[in-house]
Amino acid sequence: MSGQGAGATVGKMFGSAFAMKGGLGTASHRVPGTDVVVGAIVAVTAVGDICHPETRQIPAGARREEGQGFRDTMAAIMGGYRVVTSTGSSTTIGVVATNVPFTKAEMNKIAQMAHDGFACSINPVHTMSDGDTIFALSTGKASSVGADVSAIGAIAATVMAHAVTRAVAQAESLTELQLPAHRDYVKGWMEDRPSP
After folding, report:
1. What is the mean predicted confidence (pLDDT) over 169-187?
2. SS (HEC) of 138-159
């Protein structure tokens, strides 16, 4: 995924003029007392807002027309605000990996469950304008560990959600395109709003 995230944007439900910078993020978790590790890497280019999976705060998303603060895409949609997105304009693509050996069918289930990480951190997600994809793989190195597919899938969803929020937290603004990133937006355009 070298080079991924360079042109990534988020918060495009009302047009690219209100979008913010997306990016590339990673996260991982080692299960205490075991050798089990689950990690995720994701290039975040999403139509929806990015939401912190625990606080539900929006660190990056569609900006308000006056340029101050976030529009809250779902609140605007629920209120009847017209969307202007185009089909296929975004693809959030990621990989979840573990060192526990699983069959191809089991890894497919883990990839499926990892999509819940998108649902926890992108709102709305899986729209007609999104081409969201997650691949799953295993190194098979922890062959002496017996791990449950459902447990690893649940962990994969959690680390994926955190990787998504890290992608926007680490993104850098493209000032020439007037495309702010989270780190600059909270400092410059939103001094009065606490950083999520």
Report:
1. 79
2. ECCCCCCCCCCHHHHHHHHHHH
68: domain CATH number is 3.60.70.12
| Residue 85, in any domain of the structure | yes
- Reference 9, options 174, 127, 159, 126; nearest CA is 174
**How far is residue 155's CA from residue 180's CA, in Å, rounded to a whole number?**
31
- Domain containing residue 77: 9-189
Q: Which amino acid is at 62?
A: A
Tokens at residue 45, please? 């280019």
Query: Is residue 182 assigned to a domain?
Result: yes
Closest CA to 138 of 52, 36, 51: 36
State mean pLDDT over 137-164.
Answer: 93
Structural domains of the chain, count: 1
Convert the pLDDT of each residue in 115-125 to its tens digit.
999 999 999 99
Residue at 3 is within a domain:
no
Output the pLDDT for position 146.
76
71 in a structural domain: yes
The residue count for the chain: 196
Q: pTM of this prediction?
A: 0.88
